[in-house]
């Protein structure tokens, strides 16, 4: 099957799209036939979780066979719930917990699958040698990618993070990472320095031909890869099924989903579920104080020319939401010239405007809201006191938007709020919001939060404090290329 580039370049089949990540013209790969090919969503909902997942993945990535086996290798061992993403009830809230994987954040769902897809893609194309993943991270993605790629045959991974720019727990999660094929390196600079350093290294190394001569392919694990979107589509079905099992809906009833959003990948996966037939009402985009998407859905103008705010929900601190490009493409029936013009304007002028006719179509499926820092803290406190549920700051942003969405009178009877991280990943902010005192190290704060809530600290986090540091390299951003070159010269990580 062929995936179109949102900017009109040459289409790619599934394996090529997964290995490339981004199209050569800078566009994102989209399955324009989604929603036109029939999918028996109602039958699939009756299957056990992993079989359901395999059918959904098989529909989104038909060029890859053997999804049952692939998912059995990806999820059951790494997730501490048999349904992978359990649905919690807290007062009137229905909360889909996406954080039961190895790093306690939702990126685990997709990053435990992507490496296996890449290996399969290369094997199918008869390619030997190593796929070397280069990733710059502001925290969560790096660790989830390390866990996903660790000891996967035929792959190696190098993660760069800004020295002093991630939380102490996030740093410990990365520098203590196990695995024979992993490398972690701090960069003296901020996240942007890291990211542009990696991009430059990528281009220069590919230009030099060195990776190819050593039988290697450079790749990345970023959130625009179709191999990351597909696994995320699965949990919208898993949520729907859990509501059915509890007799809260009957098959066919619409369900709204409120999604804590940054790069727009998670919520776009929900749109894919809707296109496949799942009865989704509205997808509600929840933003923190960086409300560029809220403003976009209101006015049809995407404008990144504003101050970048650091919030308690850092994974949603974003001014350029890459995956929105896919929605523009789908909502305009594949108007690639229009999409290219928008993306060029975003680079050149910092903004673009979408015609009202296309916005009207988008608003049939999407709504949006945002949450200030103060409201976020208040929501964590209130949800704890009134519902006995401890929410992390990203989830709290979505809970506040859920309340507003229900009060608007436009909501479906059933509304599911997505929860993207464990509260123990952000102990200081959560403690402060529930009336505790955030003292000592983050590990002390986790224990304090555990004592206060009666919930255990997830073992993957509590076990970190005693682990040996494996990676101590710190380099300047302009040395990233040399650093990777040295790894390639030695034949891999
Ligand atoms: C990445 C992330 C998000 C945002 O997801 P997108 O797919 O980028 O919109 C929200 N919450 C947490 C905890 C994350 O790690």
Textual characterization of the structure:
This protein has 493 residues and is an alpha/beta fold. The protein contains 22 helices and 16 strands. The strands form 4 sheets. A 6-stranded mixed sheet has the order 4-5-15-10-11-14, sandwiched between helices. It has a 5-stranded parallel sheet with strand order 9-6-7-8-16, sandwiched between helices. α1 (14-20) crosses α6. The longest helix is centred in the middle third of the chain and has 20 residues, at 226-245. The chain is globular and about 60 Å long. The protein starts with a strand and ends with a helix. It binds pyridoxal-5'-phosphate (PLP).
Helical region count?
Answer: 22
pLDDT below 50 for ≥5 consecutive residues: which ranges?
Answer: none
Which range best describes the helical content: under 10%, 10-25%, 25-40%, 40-55%, 55-70% or over 70%? Answer: 40-55%
Integer average pLDDT: 95
The secondary structure category is alpha/beta
User: Quick one: overall form?
Assistant: globular
The major pleated sheet works out as:
6 strands, mixed
Which descriptors apply to this entry?
493 residues, alpha/beta, 16 strands, globular, binds pyridoxal-5'-phosphate
Strand and helix layout:
Layout: E1 2-5, E2 12-13, H1 14-20, E3 29-30, H2 41-44, H3 49-60, H4 67-74, E4 87-90, E5 93-97, H5 107-111, H6 114-124, E6 130-136, H7 140-149, E7 155-162, H8 168-175, E8 182-187, H9 191-208, H10 210-213, E9 216-219, H11 226-245, E10 255-260, H12 265-275, E11 280-287, H13 292-299, E12 301-303, H14 324-331, H15 336-348, E13 351-353, H16 356-365, E14 366-370, H17 373-387, H18 393-407, E15 414-419, H19 427-433, H20 442-453, H21 459-462, E16 474-475, H22 480-489
Parallel strand pairs: 5-15, 6-7, 6-9, 7-8, 8-16, 10-11, 10-15, 11-14
Antiparallel strand pairs: 1-2, 1-3, 4-5, 12-13
Helix pairs in contact: 1-6, 3-4, 3-11, 9-22, 11-12, 17-18, 17-19, 19-20
Bound molecules: pyridoxal-5'-phosphate.
């Amino acid at each position: 099957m062929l995936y179109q580039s949102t900017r009109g370049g040459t289409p790619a089949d599934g394996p090529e799209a997964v290995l490339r990540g981004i199209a050569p013209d800078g566009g994102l790969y989209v399955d324009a036939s989604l929603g036109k090919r029939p999918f028996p969503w109602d039958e699939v909902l009756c299957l056990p979780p992993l079989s359901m997942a395999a059918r959904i993945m098989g529909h989104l990535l038909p060029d890859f066979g053997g999804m049952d086996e692939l998912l059995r290798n990806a999820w059951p061992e790494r997730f501490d719930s048999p349904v992978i993403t359990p649905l919690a009830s807290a007062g009137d809230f229905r909360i889909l917990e996406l954080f039961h994987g190895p790093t306690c954040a939702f990126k685990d769902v997709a990053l435990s699958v992507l490496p296996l897809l890449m290996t399969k893609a290369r094997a199918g194309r008869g390619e030997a040698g190593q796929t070397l993943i280069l990733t710059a991270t502001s925290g969560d993605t790096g660790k989830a990618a390390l866990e996903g790629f660790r000891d996967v045959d035929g792959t190696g991974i190098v993660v760069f993070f800004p020295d002093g720019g991630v939380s102490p727990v996030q740093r410990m999660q990365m520098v203590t990472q196990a695995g024979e094929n992993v490398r972690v390196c701090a960069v003296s600079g901020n996240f942007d320095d890291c990211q542009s350093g990696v991009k430059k290294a990528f281009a220069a190394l590919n230009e030099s031909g060195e990776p190819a001569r050593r039988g290697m392919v450079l790749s990345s694990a970023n959130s625009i890869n179709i191999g990351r979107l597909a696994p995320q589509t699965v949990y919208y079905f898993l949520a729907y099924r859990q509501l059915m099992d509890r007799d809260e809906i009957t098959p066919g009833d619409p369900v709204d989903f409120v999604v804590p959003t940054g790069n727009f990948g998670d919520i776009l996966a929900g749109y894919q579920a809707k296109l496949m037939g799942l009865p989704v009402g509205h997808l509600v985009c929840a933003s923190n104080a960086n409300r560029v998407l809220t403003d976009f859905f209101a006015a049809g103008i995407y404008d990144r020319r504003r101050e970048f705010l650091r919030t308690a929900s850092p994974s949603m601190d974003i001014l350029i939401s890459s995956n929105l490009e896919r929605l523009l493409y789908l909502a305009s029936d594949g108007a690639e010239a229009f999409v290219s013009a928008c993306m060029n304007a975003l680079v050149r002028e910092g903004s673009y405007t979408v015609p009202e006719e296309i916005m009207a179509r988008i608003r049939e499926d999407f709504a949006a809201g945002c949450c200030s820092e103060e409201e976020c803290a208040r929501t964590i406190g209130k949800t704890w006191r009134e519902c006995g549920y401890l929410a992390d700051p990203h989830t709290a942003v979505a809970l506040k938007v859920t309340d507003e969405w229900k009060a608007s009178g436009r909501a479906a009877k059933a509304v599911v709020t997505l929860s993207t991280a464990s509260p123990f990943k952000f102990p200081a902010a959560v403690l402060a919001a529930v009336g505790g005192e955030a003292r000592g190290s983050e590990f002390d704060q986790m224990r304090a939060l555990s004592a206060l809530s009666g919930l255990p600290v997830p073992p993957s986090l509590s076990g970190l404090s005693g682990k040996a540091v494996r990676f101590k390299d710190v380099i300047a951003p302009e040395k990233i290329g040399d650093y990777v070159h040295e790894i390639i010269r030695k034949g891999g990580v």
